[in-house]
Design goal:
Blueprint: E1 6-9, H1 15-26, E2 30-35, E3 48-53, H2 61-74, E4 79-81, H3 85-93, H4 95-99, H5 109-116, H6 118-127, E5 135-138, E6 155-159, E7 163-166, E8 169-172, E9 176-178, H7 181-191, E10 197-201, E11 206-215, E12 218-231, E13 237-244, H8 248-261, E14 265-274, E15 279-286, H9 293-299, H10 303-311, E16 326-328, H11 330-341, H12 348-356, E17 363-365, H13 374-409, H14 412-420, E18 423-428, H15 434-447, E19 454-459, H16 470-478, E20 500-504, H17 507-516, E21 524-526, H18 546-573
Helix pairs in contact: 1-10, 13-17, 15-18
């Protein structure tokens, strides 16, 4: 490999990206790490010679592509490596223009489009002879009635893509487990907004990952590992894994699938292995580097360096690697441990044993390297701040619970505030569902009542300018309301006054809003404070289907009624 190759690595906030930066930096490359956050962990690496910050592709799709175009126009790179779908999917839309400036390590678009589609990959895997769970690809609601699983529920529901853009904003679409047909219909209605929906029977076994590198449909390097801990416990990203001997059966299946696709580049295939039946079930494919990449490097397979060699038309062959090497994502594994402690089916002895293994020589932490210790220090600081923050939030929540309980018993304080209110501020998280609907509903009711307070909504963590959720828009339409012109605003954008009354949806939001705006803490209330018959929290329905959203919106209406009555009656008494 020629010295001083210039490489741009995107998604520097990921531990897999840190592994790429370290690998290529050690190989003598000048690595530019880029991310949407200035706190990206790969920025801490000594092997990142330059740091760049770009617009978040999930929130500013067009601005991200403009940034990348300008960056490649002004500086040539021998290779650009996007590491997550957040950057890969937008790049596909203008790939030809970008590749005229610098090579990009993404498989050809027609191939990549098949891999990012879970429905197409399911069909391709079956055609290649892999065992796939009992499955249905659902294109219309009537097809849901044809689902008759041999093993009953639960069923696994997957959107066609794990990450999709709607109204210019990216949305992560997680795999869902449903326990009944009503929930299945509800989740399907949500995911159908983004394309076809894949429904599968749940298969049991432990997770197995197969990281690989292929050249034009020919498998050239392969690494097998087993997932020991997954987050969430029901199945998800790996937190703790161990390298395994490459199973010839699995290698043959990967060879068939790679050939069928004509794959070029890095990929991870996910399987479930049933040890009783000695059977591998294909779950899904990721056409990029994967979360367990640091383990591959620790075991001896340098995928990033081999990927660079592949794109420079150099030879790459199968690497020998050590078996029994273990690696863990420290932060995610702490989350696993906290969940496992509360889970009766996981023995305490296993939890303690797995934690103590951290000090063994064959154990590796994804963020740590002897020659590059700063990323681990950064991760430990982040974990510490997160845990301290959780303790403080619990304390604030406890105080908030006591206050809300007292207010429900004696609502005179809030009635007095409502009598003086000149504006009601309705607050949730993103201001695209709950508070947006509440604002529209209340504004319509007050429109026929002169002298009513003004109404505005906002989100504690809103992405300013984001349209209302499409399901929220549909439900609002059914209530003869319109959210078509609604655009999210952050609470920080509002200039709060002493005559505002602020309603939030959840107890945690009372505490958070009071922390951010302490001078207004006495005027921040739960929306349900005057409705003891309702659940205390109006939970976030984001990501749920129409039935769940409808139920939540009915709670909002029920909570708003006594607020409106209080304002109307109080003001009718005024001279």
């Amino acid at each position: 490999m020629s010295p001083c190759q210039q490489v741009l690595v995107l998604d520097a906030d990921q531990l897999s990206t840190l592994a790429v930066v370290r690998s290529l930096g050690r190989s003598g490359c000048a690595v530019t790490a880029a991310a949407a956050s200035p706190h990206a962990i790969a920025f801490q690496s000594r092997y990142a010679s330059r740091h760049l910050i770009y617009p978040d592709p999930l929130q500013q799709h067009g601005a991200f592509l403009e940034w990348l175009t300008n960056t490649l126009t002004n500086h040539f790179f021998d290779l650009v490596i996007p590491v997550t779908d957040r950057s890969i999917v937008p790049i596909l839309t203008i790939r030809n223009a970008l590749e005229a400036l610098s090579p990009i390590a993404i498989a050809p678009n027609p191939v990549m489009e098949q891999v990012v589609s879970k429905c197409r990959m399911h069909s391709l895997a079956r055609e290649a002879g892999l065992d796939v769970p009992e499955s249905w690809i659902i294109k219309a609601p009537a097809a849901l009635e044809t689902i008759d699983p041999r093993n009953g529920f639960p069923l696994v529901v997957k959107a066609e893509r794990s990450l999709a853009w709607l109204d210019g904003y990216g949305q992560a679409l997680e795999t869902r487990y449903v326990m009944d047909r009503a929930t299945l219909k509800d989740i399907w209605a949500r995911y159908a907004l983004y394309g076809d929906v894949l429904v599968q029977s749940r298969v049991m076994g432990h997770g197995v990952g197969l990281g690989l590198l292929a050249r034009d449909g020919l498998l050239v390097n392969c690494f097998q590992y087993r997932r020991l801990h997954e987050v969430p416990l029901t199945g998800g990203g790996s937190a703790y894994r161990v390298s395994e001997t490459l199973d010839p059966v699995l290698e043959d299946q990967a060879t068939q699938l790679v050939r069928q696709l004509g794959w070029h580049g890095a990929m991870m295939l996910e399987f479930k292995y049933d040890p009783r039946a000695k059977q591998y079930w294909f779950i899904e494919a990721n056409g990029r580097f994967w979360g367990g990449l640091p383990l591959a490097l620790a075991a001896g397979v340098d995928f990033p360096r081999h990927l660079l060699a592949l794109y420079q038309n150099q030879s790459v062959s199968q690497s020998a690697y050590s078996v029994g090497v273990r690696g863990r994502n420290l932060e995610r594994d702490i989350d696993w441990t906290r969940s496992a402690v509360r889970h009766a089916d996981i023995p305490t002895t296993r939890i303690v044993s797995d934690a103590l293994k951290l000090v063994l020589p064959r154990e590796h932490i994804d963020s740590f390297a002897v020659d590059d210790p700063r990323p681990l220090a950064s991760e430990v600081r982040h974990i510490g701040c997160r845990l301290i923050g959780a303790v403080r939030r619990r304390k604030r929540l406890s105080a908030s619970n006591a206050r809300e309980s007292e207010l429900r018993k004696n609502p005179q304080q809030i009635r007095s505030c409502l009598q003086q209110a000149q504006r009601l501020v309705l607050v949730c998280s993103g201001n695209i569902m709950r508070s947006a609907f509440a604002e529209a509903y209340l504004a319509k009711k007050f429109a026929s009542q002169p002298g009513s307070p003004a109404v505005v909504s906002a989100g504690l963590d809103a992405q300013p300018g984001r349209p209302a959720d499409p399901i929220a828009r549909n439900i609002a339409h059914n209530h003869k309301l319109s959210l078509e012109d609604h655009r999210a605003r952050a609470l920080a954008m509002l200039e709060l006054t002493e005559n505002d009354v602020i309603f939030v949806m959840e107890r945690s939001q009372v505490a958070e809003a009071a922390k951010r705006y302490p001078t207004h803490a006495s005027r921040i209330y739960l929306l349900t404070v005057l409705t003891p018959s309702l659940p205390i929290d109006i939970v976030d329905p984001n990501g749920e289907g129409p039935a769940t959203c409808q139920a939540i919106f009915h709670q909002i209406i029920d909570a708003l009624e006594p607020v409106m009555d209080c304002i109307t009656h109080q003001r009718q008494r005024l001279p």
